[in-house]
Amino acid sequence: VPCKEPPKILRLDESVVNRIAAGEVIQRPVSAIKELVENSLDAQSTSVNVVVKDGGLKLIQVSDDGHGIRYEDLPILCERHTTSKLSTFEDLQSIKSMGFRGEALASMTYVGHVTVTTITKGQLHGYRVSYRDGVMEHEPKPCAAVKGTQITVENLFYNMTARRKTLQNASDDYTKIVDLLSRFAIHHINISFSCRKHGAARADVHSVGPTSRLDAIRTVYGASVARNLMKIEVSENDEACSGFKMDGLISNSNYVAKKITMVLFINGRMVECSALKRAIEIVYAATLPKASKPFIYMSIILPPEHVDVNVHPTKKEVSLLNQEVIIERIQSAVESKLRSSNDTRAFQEQD
Ligand code: ADP
Ligand code: MG
């Protein structure tokens, strides 16, 4: 057979490139909300309120009382790779803020309609401005504002038919959003969070900070969870694990659930770690007589240079130096905690 001519390689339009990238960063409504809430946290807010309509497809609104955005910065706010958090690549090694890529807001403007209302300290009024495809649609308009920033995203994925179709189940996405806010609320116990459906009188997540971790868990996950938790702590300073600390709350043998709940923060970032999750499930199944799935809250601190935060487009995963050793330490701490609480119980039952 005669060989066909190779297809010609063309450079994609910038607008196509941007929309493809945006679809990766903003996978579903809940990813937009995670980015917006993390921006509010980075802005030192003490209160973050979320409103959602139609599972986030019609409307997402995140309001905070943080430091706000300068008027002069509004023109480039939603351009790709504009950020106030990172300047050199080396800064990534020690980055404390949740954001660093300057991509979240830009992405939202390529797959939805973004409006920003913001006021900075000492100003008499705020500004409101809408964005499309990275750019302002008009000059910022002066408006009344209290403190901080409110960002709304309307008609998410209006220009991505396939994505919209796969996200038809609004209740499914709202569940993910409530779960997200619940996790933030029990980690950031100095901050008040709320999450409600548009027009609903009652919030589905409502925490008031400052509070204790246990009270936050009681408020968000309920008394039956909070009642059955034990404190756990590990801190190691040997070579393999120098600077590693973990503290958390884990369920005891009275806790009953069909599914594991694992709320994990590493260096203040909400992440997933399936290897750690599996390791903990194994310990519970092996140690407790009636093996219920556990509730786990853990906050792990590692030297920043041991954590690579830039391995996932949504920053959902991080990669750790010495991951196996760290998982082993946690596994054995959980096991001894479970054993000692089981022994105490057996001892009490003999009395
Ligand atoms: P990143 O968080 O990676 O910097 P984003 O696209 O999420 O990128 O945000 C761009 C910039 O907009 C941030 O660096 C920050 O300066 C500003 N910003 C976004 N949201 C807020 C907010 N809620 N309050 C104050 N500033 C904000
Ligand atoms: Mg951000």
UniProtKB/TrEMBL annotation:
Signal peptide: none
Stretches that traverse the bilayer: none
Subcellular location: Nucleus
Domain DNA mismatch repair protein S5 residues, every copy: 217-339
Family: Belongs to the DNA mismatch repair MutL/HexB family.
Protein's recorded name: DNA mismatch repair protein S5 domain-containing protein
Source organism: Citrullus colocynthis (colocynth)
Part of the intact protein present: 21 to 371 of 736
